[in-house]
Design goal:
Largest sheet: 12 strands, mixed
Number of strands: 18
CATH topology of the largest domain: Diaminopimelate Epimerase, Chain A, domain 1
Helix content: 10-25%
Shape: globular
Distance between the termini: 6 Å
CATH superfamily of the largest domain: Diaminopimelate Epimerase, Chain A, domain 1
CATH architecture of the largest domain: Roll
CATH class of the largest domain: Alpha Beta
Radius of gyration: 17 Å
Oligomer: single chain
C-alpha cells in the first residue's frame, strides 16, 4: 500500500496545500487510518472505490476535506462527472484534465459574535477587525474574521491554545481571517486558516474555509452580485494557492482547484 502526495490549489510542486492519498483503503480500520495520517504528517484521504474518508495528522477524523477531495480526484484519474461518498453525504465531482471540482454541502450561518472573541484568539486589537465576526460553514464551520488590511493579515501570530479555546467556545473548527486588500491578481479576498485540533499550526489553502468565506462575502454584498469568488491563501507559509467557489445552475456551490501530483511513500 502506498501514500501518494499531492499539492492542491496550485500547479507548482511545493506550493498550495499538501495532502496524502491512500488508495484501496477499504480494509483499514479507523484507528489504522488515524495512525497513517499521523505518520505522514499531512491531512490524508483514504479511498475505497468512490468512498472517501479523511484524517488529520492529529488522528482526528474529518467529515469533509476540500483539498483532500481534490487530491483524491487527481490520484484516482477518472475524467468526467461522477459522485463520491463522504461522511457528509454523496457529492458530485467534475474532473477536466487539470481542473478538479466538487459540489459542496449547504452552508449555514451562525449569529454574529462579539468581535473581542476573535481579537483575543488572534492576539490583535479590535481596531483591526473590519466587519461582522461570524460562524459560517458547510460541513466544518469556520469563524470568519474580516481584517482592515493585508498588513494585519500578514502580521498574525496567534497562540494555538487561544485559537483552540475560542473555537471550542463557539463551535468552530478553525479561525479564518481574511482581507479584501489582496496581492494576488484576480482574487476577491486573501485569507489564512488557523485550525483547531488538527495537529498543525496553520493550513496553507483551505477549501471548506474558502466556501465559508465566499458565502460570507455574498451574504454581505461584498462581491457585487457575482456568482464566483476567488480566494488566495498560503503566502505567509511560502505555499501560495488559489481556489474558485461558484454558485452553479444545478443549485450546488462548487469548489474548483488544480493540483500537482508528487511522489509516493510505501506504507
Amino acid at each position: 500500500m502506498q501514500a501518494h502526495f499531492v499539492d492542491v490549489f496550485t500547479t507548482t510542486p511545493g506550493q498550495g496545500n499538501p495532502a496524502a492519498v491512500v488508495m484501496d483503503a477499504g480494509r483499514l480500520s479507523g484507528p489504522e487510518m488515524a495512525g497513517i495520517a499521523a505518520q505522514l504528517g499531512v491531512e490524508t484521504t483514504f479511498v475505497d472505490g468512490t468512498t472517501l474518508r479523511y484524517y488529520q495528522p492529529s488522528g482526528h477524523a474529518m467529515v469533509l476535506c476540500g483539498h483532500g477531495t481534490m487530491a483524491a480526484l487527481a490520484v484516482m484519474g477518472n475524467e468526467g462527472e461522477y459522485t463520491v461518498s463522504t461522511p457528509v453525504g454523496d457529492l458530485p465531482v467534475k474532473v477536466e484534465r487539470y481542473l478538479f471540482g466538487m459540489a459542496m454541502p449547504p452552508v449555514t450561518f451562525g449569529p454574529a459574535l462579539d468581535p473581542q472573541i476573535a481579537a483575543t484568539a488572534l492576539g490583535i486589537d479590535l481596531s483591526q477587525i473590519d466587519g461582522p465576526v461570524q460562524i459560517v460553514g458547510g460541513g466544518r464551520p469556520k469563524l470568519i474574521v474580516p481584517l482592515m488590511s493585508l498588513e494585519a493579515l500578514e502580521a498574525l501570530r496567534p497562540d494555538s491554545q487561544a485559537v483552540e479555546e475560542a473555537c471550542t467556545g463557539v463551535g468552530a473548527t478553525g479561525i479564518y481571517p481574511f482581507t479584501r486588500k489582496v496581492r494576488a491578481l484576480g482574487a476577491s479576498a486573501e485569507a489564512r486558516h488557523f485550525p483547531a485540533g488538527a495537529g498543525i499550526y496553520e493550513d496553507p489553502v483551505t477549501g471548506v474555509g474558502g466556501l465559508a468565506l465566499a458565502w460570507y462575502l455574498w451574504h454581505y454584498g461584498c462581491c457585487g452580485g457575482c456568482c464566483g469568488v476567488k480566494v488566495a491563501q498560503g503566502f505567509e507559509m511560502g505555499r501560495p494557492g488559489m481556489m474558485m467557489i461558484r454558485q452553479e445552475q444545478d443549485g450546488h456551490t462548487w469548489l474548483y482547484g488544480q493540483a500537482a501530483i508528487g511522489g509516493t511513500r510505501q506504507l
